[in-house]
Each structure stands twice: as C-alpha cells, then as structure tokens.
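User: Can you help me understand a structure? I only have the sequence.
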Amino acid sequence: MTAQQDVARHAHDWDWLVGSWRVRHRRLKGRLVGSTEWDEFDGTCVMVPTLNGFGNMDDNWLDLPAGAYRAMGIRAFNPETRLWSIWWLDERSQDIEPPVRGGFIDGVGTFEGDDTLSGQPIKVRFRWSEIGGSAARWEQAFSADDGATWEVNWEMQFTRVKAR
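Assistant: Let's start by predicting it. Here is the structure, written out as tokens:
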C-alpha cells in the first residue's frame, strides 16, 4: 500500500457514525474523587462528514438531570501524523476543550490527550468500541497518574435512529 493509499483509507474511518442516533448516557457524578454514583440520562447525536471524509462534526443534545444542553464533537484527520484529533465544544462554557488524538485498530478507536481537572493536569482517553451498523459504544476515562491507571467516568451507548 502506498502512503497516499494509506492516507486515503482514513477518509472512511468514521463512515459508520454518519446519521442520527439515540444516546443513553451514564456519567460518574464525581471525577477522580472515588465516586461510585452515576447519573443516567438520554440524548441524541447527529453526525455529518466534512472535508471529503477527513473531517466530521456531530451535534449532541444531552438531557442531564441538572439541565439539558447542546455540545459539538469536531474531528479532523492529519495526513502527516495519520492521527485523528477530536475536539469537544460545550455550549455551557463556549470553550473548545484540548484535543484527544489517535485512531482505529482492529475496530476499536482510542484517542488520548492532556487536559486539566480542578487545576490539576490529567490525561483524557476516549474509546469507541462495539461499532456496528445500528449501535456503538463510547467511553471517556481520566488518569491523574500519567496513564498508569484510568477511571472511566462517562459511557454512552449509541442506537441508530434511522438508516443512512
């Protein structure tokens, strides 16, 4: 496979996510504080491709018990590094969070990056798994020890609303 062919195949990495989804969220109430209590709530996600497949964005509705809000996932592929970057834009803060970067291996997408929580540096990991035509799973985990241990603090189960 040529380098150009290798890059071109990444234009289809997110094809499975295009369209409309119902999302069941499960989010830890406290992060990196030993919490074992979870909030569960519903939401939606609508993803559209951009940049000839080398980018995409999704519009998310999160119906949290404390108040619903909208957020946006933005993804772009870097042909030089062959990594995807993912940014999260939340209407509550209007700030784009630092990106996580990574890709897919054997049907699982793993994306990691640096961020802060309560002023302390942390690692963030997004993981996509159980990817199929009508369902997928996403989880977020934080690490306060540079990736030695991870706490999963948010899980989402995606169910397709309608065929593409």
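Now, to help you interpret it: The longest strand covers residues 38-50. Strands lie at 19-28, 38-50, 55-62, 69-78, 83-90, 100-105, 108-117, 120-129, 135-143, 151-160. Let me know which part you'd like to focus on.
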